[in-house]
Amino acid sequence: AIGKTSDLVQEIAAASNEQSGGVGQINTAMAQLNQITQQNASSSEELAATAEEMSGQAENDGFNQLVLAAGLGTRMRPLTDDRPKALVEVQGRALIDHVLDRLLEAGVEKAVVNVHWFADRLEAHLAARRRGPQIVISDERAELLETGGGLKKAHPLLGDDPVFVANIDSVWIDLGDALSDLIRLWNPDTMDAALLLARREGSIGFEGDGDFFLAEDGKLTFRGDAPSAPFAYMGVHITRPGYADQGPDGPFSLSPLWRKSAAEGRLYGCVLDGDWMHVGDPQARDQAEAKLAGEG
């Protein structure tokens, strides 16, 4: 296109020096030049769109995932009398498959799954999956380590890239692109963890008074002594895989670490545009199934 443009410019210049017939040649050449300019502009837009798409894909590169699936599921009984909570089904799919499929769509290629309760059965289910992500087991058969201890133990398996940490009792209807929003929010220079939140009002299976207040810049503060807060943690966050390394040996929760980060202005969050279902007991499981079937 650049060569054609140069030729046309020369033709216009030559035609302008003619004493007769030059106007017609100039008009023809100018029309051709305009056509080439429009084609070049269209090509530039296509290149820009392609670059934007590739940039969006690159945003998801480098993230692994820890799925916290080792819990006893006591509130889910009797559904967990013969299986881990991760294998309780919602609309014909195990809870852990809902989570793994969500993160697979977000670009996660490897998931570390911690196991404890009915560990053999959960491992067999994961081995039979016919799609990604790649599964690596963090074995907590000897001792259930809770959220902080589970992350600390899994660190060597996760590597050093940023990591999604996900509970297995969250199912959601996404009207936007919540996980991509969380990825775009994440900045390891200014934050220790970035949490995905849901609006407390309208959530299914969540009976608390809310967890967080959210500032305009995305910083989170805990509810504290306030009677309620508008947002609840919905079970997915991004952090550094070594975030819990300084915690004690054995079981411990991530909550004290989050409180420290919040006090230092390093705990952030963004809000799901959609419907969150906390599948913590049999009644919530039934409500989630009704919601996903369009009945709720």
Describe this structure in words.
With 296 residues, the chain is an alpha/beta fold. It contains eight helices and 13 strands. It has helices at residues 2-16, 22-59, 95-105, 119-127, 146-158, 178-185, 255-263, 282-292; strands at residues 64-68, 89-90, 93-94, 110-115, 134-139, 163-167, 170-174, 193-199, 212-214, 220-222, 231-239, 267-271, 274-278. It has a seven-stranded mixed β-sheet with strand order 5-4-1-6-11-8-12, sandwiched between helices. Strands 2-3 form a two-stranded antiparallel sheet. A two-stranded antiparallel ribbon has the order 7-13. The longest helix has 38 residues, at 22-59. 38% of the residues are buried. Mean pLDDT is 84; it is low at 15-23 and 46-60.
Please give a quick description of this structure:
This protein is of the alpha/beta class and 296 residues long. The protein is built from 8 helices and 13 strands.
Query: Outline, from the CA principal axes?
Result: globular
Distance linking N and C termini? 57 Å
The helicity comes to: 25-40%
Number of extended strands = 13
Mean pLDDT metric:
84
Total DSSP helices: 8
Structural class: alpha/beta
Strand order, largest beta sheet: 5-4-1-6-11-8-12
Q: What percentage of the residues does DSSP assign to strands (E)?
A: 15-25%
N-to-C series of helices and strands: HHEEEHEHEHEEHEEEEHEEH
User: What is the makeup of the main sheet?
Assistant: 7 strands, mixed
Rg, alpha carbons: 27 Å
List low-confidence stretches: 15-23, 46-60
